[in-house]
Amino acid sequence: MNAAFYESILNGKRLMFWFTSMGKESIIKVIQFKPTEEPDIYEIALGDLNSDGSIDLDKRSDNGDTEEVLSTVAKALLFFLSDHMEAQVVIEANSDSRARLYQIAIKRGLDDLGEYLVAYGFDNEKPEVLQSGKNYKKFVISLREDRL
Question: Rounded mean pLDDT of 61-89?
Answer without folding.
Answer: 91
